[in-house]
Design brief:
The complex is a heterotrimer of chains A (about 160), B (about 120) and C (about 675). Chain B is an alpha/beta fold. Chain B has helices spanning about 10-20, 40-50, 65-75, 90-100, 110-120, and strands at about 5-10, 30-35, 55, 80-85, 105. Classes of the chains: A alpha+beta (about 160), B alpha/beta (about 120), C alpha+beta (about 675).
């Protein structure tokens, strides 16, 4: 029936696809236009996280351990805010949007990975800010999205534990 | 009484392997009347030689095994069919049995397993 | 319940006897009643007759006296005479009646008691003189006065006595009737009493028996209930119409994570738990169990619900087990399958354990395997392989990072990745690093369907990035093993560069042949004087030769049977020859004595792949051969680990051009295929 899974409960592509889908749908719901996955790659060792002007991050503990982060440039968020009907934007507004996206990711994570997962409230920070250290040891998976002419990235940095 | 066997498989390696195993000492009453590489050929050979037994692959060019079993079951109801397939899920096996096959052997199979399966069907 | 008749009779024999007795008693009472009423009727008749005697005697005496008086006064006496005659005959008849009773052989007279008989005798005795006196009076038309007087005298003197006797008889009979009636009533009462007793006995016995059997049934039910309540397995019966039976084990709702009502359709029960195909398989199987004559062993093997993974339900998580196992047992009745006994086991835990164990085993064996395989190889080569593998994966990852969001770019990326992974697989196979080649094969399995698609999107790349990670990890594992080994062992003295290569080629060829069930002999010929090869050239050889040898065995060499049919030796030969020219250039050829490449076959394959007919027909042999070197083309229809993915020749062409080598192909159908790599002299 099911192929025997390795003892290490590996993070599966499906799990990550769930997050990517969440981002796509978020944009579709808010702006009417889906954000498209451009590609996916592993962040090479020693490379800095591809953070952006504004970043929203959740930390995960339990069956899975690590973080999921959404990073977007100011221009994209301006556009999103405009589509949301806002015309003046402060950094706080931008952080709000990435925070909201991180929140959506958290909700989705809980639904998909179940009860054995502790998720911190979304943390947001600007380019000047510092991300919290990640608890995962595997290389992070980077998923760049395109929306309009902008690029945003989803960084999934999770280890699956037994 | 000697029974006639038709071997149907698109892989020649497998056809030859089955053919070789059918010359096993334990199967003295089995005579190979044909080797078919696809379903159409299988039906044609079966109608010509009216075999008592057929070993049948499922995934084959031209006419697949399912279809082939259906045809053999209606045209030669006396012929017993042993499905020999790598499609290992039970749904496939069930379907084949429902269509009229009498036995099922998963690929890859050991020599003993094939001989056993054929003996079982010859009873 | 035991349906055997004699036991049944035995069980109720007592009751039947009691009922029979009751009926006999009732019937007896009934018959006796009829008899009694008949007696009473008769007694009444006797009493009346006896009473009448008194009246008739009086009338007779009176008629005689009247007659005498009328005769004396000369009046007409016909009337009196008639009255006399009437009373006489009435008396006589009554008397005769009573007498007749005593004389009759049958009838109540027989039972007349002595006292009544004596009274009757006295009556007759007293009557006789009157009778004698009256007869002459009655018989003569004109009776004489003397006769009349005599009759009157006889009657008068005896009348009182006669009446007295009649009275006595009447009273006596009455008394007798009363006493008889009384005793009859006693008998009747007794019989009714007995019948009632019997009736109560039956009722008591019967109720007790009913209660007893009720109690037994209840106990049995209780037992069944307890069993059904306690067993952890789900138990129920399934009838021909697919309905669940009434008796079910309590664990059922828990196992299914939903209420399970009796009479529920099995289809409905599994509808939310299993995938549609599994549901269909289950239906087919149940149908098979009910209707088809299939051997039990096969039936058992076919059970599609032996180990099933349950669907998670609409909202992701469902309560209850994750894996169930169903067992079906046919309930036979006179050779017909009447129902199926279904047993459901929760196997979530076992499955989890099995998975964990399999995982642990796989990991352990893979580690051992790679360790052993690595030890067989030249460490320098393995290091080279790891390095080039990591480089290739790095390039794939870089390509992933840089790819433009267009379907074409995605397609190119996939092709690029495929080639990279294919080389890794080839080299890993040559080095006997099974875990790596397996992982690479899995990677190829992911890529193969993507290569055919025109509508790729970024989402399709997510699993690729994953696989890059997985394969990297496998390489890292080997690196770790190697590092560990190095700590114990000084790096061995490097041998002649070709010796290692030769070993590798032989190993690979034999492995591929074994996997494909072919027989192959490998000959590797080096020149006596090893040419002076630079690192780079050696690396290229390490890359290309395994691919060419793999192709030769997988595509060139036929199966044993085919070879025999073609009049060849059963064992194929692959010959690898190194040759150096005077100018210092090196040529390497790989030649197999297999089926060769037939242009007809390439044509057929191209048509099969959907190329336009006219184009294919117009192609020259050279052009046809050239298509072999285009990406994605393979003569093999089904991919195995060694061939048929349409990569190989295009890869070799790429490698050759990178290495600055020319590649030549010569072939003769049914005879041989030879690839020659011509390296330019080192500058």
């Amino acid at each position: 029936m099911t192929a025997p899974a390795p003892l290490r409960k590996a993070l599966r592509p499906d799990d990550v696809e769930v997050f990517a889908e969440t981002i796509g749908h978020f944009f579709e719901r808010i702006t009417g236009e889906k954000a498209l996955v451009r590609t996916a790659y592993l962040l090479e060792a020693g490379m800095p996280l591809p953070l952006d002007d504004f970043n929203g991050l959740i930390q995960v503990q339990g069956d899975y351990q690590g973080s999921v982060c959404f990073a977007a440039p100011r221009g994209l968020l301006d556009h999103v805010l405009m589509r949301m009907g806002q015309h003046e934007y402060s950094d706080a507004d931008h952080l709000d949007v990435v925070g909201e996206i991180a929140n959506t990711l958290a909700g989705r994570a809980r639904r998909v990975f179940g009860e054995g997962l502790e998720i911190t409230p979304p943390q947001t920070f600007t380019r000047a800010g510092k991300p919290p250290p990640s608890a995962a040891s595997s290389p992070p998976l980077v998923i760049p999205f395109t929306w309009q002419s902008y690029t945003a990235v989803l960084i999934v940095h999770l280890d699956a534990l037994v | 009484m000697t029974m006639k066997l038709l071997i149907v498989d698109d892989s020649m390696v497998i056809r030859n392997r089955i053919a070789r195993l059918c010359q096993d000492m334990r199967l003295p009453n089995l005579e190979i009347v044909g080797l078919a590489g696809d379903g159409q050929q299988a039906v044609a050979l079966a109608e010509q030689f009216r075999p008592d037994l057929v070993t049948m692959d499922l995934t084959m060019p031209k006419m697949d095994g399912d279809e082939c079993i259906s045809r053999l079951a209606t045209r030669l109801p006396e012929t017993r069919i042993l499905v020999v397939s790598a499609l290992s899920d039970k749904t496939t096996a069930l379907k084949a049995i429902k269509k009229g096959a009498q036995g099922f052997l998963h690929k890859p199979f050991s020599d003993d397993e094939l001989v056993e399966a054929l003996l079982e069907l010859m009873r | 319940m035991n349906p055997q008749p004699h036991t049944w009779l035995g069980k109720y024999r007592e009751l039947l006897a009691a009922i029979a007795l009751f009926l006999v008693l009732d019937l007896g009472v009934l018959i006796f009643n009829t008899y009694t009423s008949h007696l009473i009727e008769r007694d009444t008749a006797h009493i009346n007759t006896a009473g009448e005697l008194r009246v008739y005697s009086q009338q007779l005496t009176k008629a005689l006296l009247t007659l005498r008086m009328e005769m004396q006064s000369g009046d007409s006496y016909q009337t009196s005479q008639a009255q006399l005659s009437e009373s006489y005959s009435a008396f006589s008849t009554a008397l005769q009646h009573l007498q007749g009773l005593t004389l009759g052989s049958s009838g109540p007279g027989a039972s007349m008691d002595p006292q009544s008989r004596e009274l009757l005798d006295q009556l007759v005795e007293t009557w006789e003189p009157i009778n004698t006196g009256v007869l002459p009076v009655l018989n003569a038309a004109t009776p004489s006065a003397w006769d009349v007087d005599d009759a009157v005298n006889r009657a008068v003197t005896r009348n009182v006595r006669l009446m007295q006797l009649a009275d006595d008889l009447t009273r006596h009979l009455e008394a007798q009737a009363v006493s008889r009636a009384a005793s009859l009533r006693y008998i009747q009462l007794g019989a009714i009493f007995l019948a009632s007793l019997n009736f109560f006995f039956i009722v008591f016995k019967f109720i007790r028996r009913l209660l007893e059997s009720d109690r037994q049934i209840e106990a049995a039910r209780q037992e069944t209930r307890e069993i059904l309540d306690t067993v952890r397995e789900g138990l129920f019966l399934l009838d021909r119409d697919g309905h669940l039976g009434i008796q079910q084990s309590r664990s059922l709702p828990e196992l299914f994570g939903r209420p399970v009502a009796p009479g529920l359709k099995f289809d409905e029960l599994i509808a939310q738990l299993l995938e549609p195909e599994q549901q269909e398989a289950a239906r087919d199987y149940i149908d098979l169990l009910f209707n088809r004559k299939v051997k039990p062993a096969l039936l058992e093997e076919l059970n599609p619900l032996r180990e099933v993974t349950l669907a998670a339900g609409q909202d992701g998580r469902r309560k209850g087990p994750t894996h169930l196992s169903f067992e079906f047992t046919q309930v036979l009745e006179q050779g017909e399958v009447r129902a199926l006994l279904v047993t459901v086991f929760d196997i979530s835990r076992q499955m989890q354990l099995a998975r964990d164990l399999a995982g642990a085993e796989a990991r352990a064996s893979s580690e051992v395997e790679s360790l052993l395989a690595v030890l067989d190889q030249d460490p320098a080569q393995v290091r080279d392989f790891l390095k080039s593998g990591e480089d290739r994966l790095g390039m794939v990852n870089q390509a992933l990072q840089d790819v433009q969001p267009e379907a074409r770019a995605y397609a190119e990326l996939i092709n690029f990745a495929f080639r990279a992974i294919h080389s890794i697989k080839g080299e890993a196979g040559a080095l006997g690093l099974l875990e790596v080649s397996r992982q690479a094969h899995q990677f190829e399995d992911l890529l193969t369907p993507l290569r055919r698609r025109q509508d790729l999107t970024g989402d399709d790349l997510i699993p690729i990035a994953f696989q890059v990670g997985e394969l990297r990890q496998k390489l890292a594992q080997i690196g770790e093993v190697l590092a560990k080994v190095r700590r114990y062992q000084e790096a061995p003295v490097s041998q002649h560069p070709f010796v290692e290569l030769k070993k590798q080629i032989e190993h690979l060829a034999l492995k591929v042949a074994e996997d494909l069930n072919k027989k192959v002999r490998v000959e590797v010929n080096f020149p006596q004087q090893a040419p002076n090869l630079d690192e780079r050239l050696l690396r290229h050889l390490h890359e290309m030769l395994p691919q060419l040898v793999r192709n030769a065995v997988a595509h060139g060499i036929e199966s044993e049977a085919e070879r025999l049919q073609a009049g060849k030796l059963p064992e194929g030969t692959v010959r690898v020859e190194f040759a150096t020219t005077t100018e210092g250039s090196l040529s390497v050829s790989v030649r197999d004595d297999g089926r060769g490449i037939s242009c007809a076959r390439i044509r057929a394959r191209l048509l099969e792949l959907g190329h336009p007919h006219e184009l294919v027909e117009s192609m020259s042999e050279r052009e046809l051969i050239a298509t072999l070197f285009t990406p994605g083309f393979s003569l093999q229809e089904e991919a195995n680990e060694h061939a048929g993915r349409g990569v190989g020749l295009d890869l070799i062409r790429d490698m050759a051009s990178r290495a600055g080598a020319r590649i030549r192909l010569s072939t003769l159908p049914n005879a041989y295929t030879q690839f020659t790599l011509q390296f330019q002299p080192a500058s």
